[in-house]
Amino acid sequence: MPIRAPLYGLACVICFSIVTKAYAEPEPPDQNVEQTGSQIPEGGLQLTLPSFNVISANKPLKLDLKPLKQNKKAAAYQILEILAPRPNQTVFINTANLGIKIKLLPSIKTDQGHKLQILLNDEVLTENKLSYMLDNADPGRHRVSARVIDEAGNTVINTKPVTINIEKSVAQGF
């Protein structure tokens, strides 16, 4: 993949030089150049080049550039990610608790009515905390996610869900 960019660039330079050479005014004749007029020399190739429009440079080109509108709510946060658990992690819930850790930058904007929620299978576990200790859950596959919502309950930013496996450990016999 890294070698494609230089090759693509080289191909563009070669094509550009061929096209510009074709549009350049003819060189004055010298002893090494044979002028053939409209006849194609034997073994030669006829090129038909497309016509192009010429724009007069007398008047400056006026562009109506408007700044892009940004979603101020989404721009309020730069990072929201799940630090723990790891994707596809297996947790034995009756021998260890599952710690959920979230990273949010900048911190939650409660003055704007925002709430940080940590969710398990799309159900809210806690609000406005960056960590949560899950000590009891049914065995099976579960999804951990986090989101920031506004006063109206609209999602401002959210994480991709992290899938985990919860299992009950079985005591080993002696």
* CATH topology grouping of the domain at 75-167: Immunoglobulin-like
How many helices? 2
* CATH architectural type of the domain at 75-167: Sandwich
Instruction: Name the average pLDDT.
Output: 75
**Radius of gyration over C-alpha positions, nearest whole angstrom:** 33 Å
Strand-pairing-aware structural class: alpha+beta
What is the helix content?
10-25%
Strand proportion, as a percent range, falls in 25-35%
**Approximate shape:** elongated
Kindly provide the name of the CATH class of the domain at 75-167: Mainly Beta
Q: Report the sheet with the most strands, covering strand number, pairing sense and barrel closure.
A: 6 strands, mixed
Summarize the helix and strand pattern as letters. HHEEEEEEEEE
Query: How many strands appear in the DSSP assignment?
Result: 9
Low-confidence stretches: none
Task: Please tell me about this protein's structure.
By secondary structure, the chain is an alpha+beta fold. It has a domain at 75-167: Immunoglobulins (Immunoglobulin-like), CATH 2.60.40. 14% of the residues lie in helices and 30% in strands. The chain contains two helices and nine strands; from the N terminus they run ααβββββββββ.
SSE layout and pairing:
Elements: H1 4-23, H2 72-75, E1 79-84, E2 90-92, E3 98-105, E4 115-120, E5 123-127, E6 131-134, E7 140-149, E8 155-158, E9 162-167
Parallel strand pairs: 2-9
Antiparallel strand pairs: 1-3, 3-6, 4-5, 4-7, 7-8, 7-9
Keywords:
9 strands; 174 residues; 2 helices; six-stranded mixed beta sheet; Immunoglobulin-like; alpha+beta
